[in-house]
């Protein structure tokens, strides 16, 4: 059975030190240009883990990702006109 996962965006000052975040969850992406890390972890232990992450010296800010709350099913009342322009 899969546990509920939640994502966090962690803004860091040092990307080399940010590799230490792998022990707190699954690191999905590290941005070298903008200096942030996207990490996924178990939702039930997320609050305790975030408190520990915020104490790290290289962490500037932690934000929760709202990706799982965004609607991804789209409906359109306008008919598709692409079939009229096909070859």
Automatic annotation (TrEMBL):
GO cellular component labels: cytoplasm
Top-level taxonomic group: Bacteria
Record's subcellular location: Cytoplasm
Keywords: Cytoplasm
InterPro entries: DUF2129 (IPR016979)
Family: Belongs to the UPF0298 family.
Protein name per Swiss-Prot or TrEMBL: UPF0298 protein IDH44_13285
Organism of origin: Paenibacillus sabuli
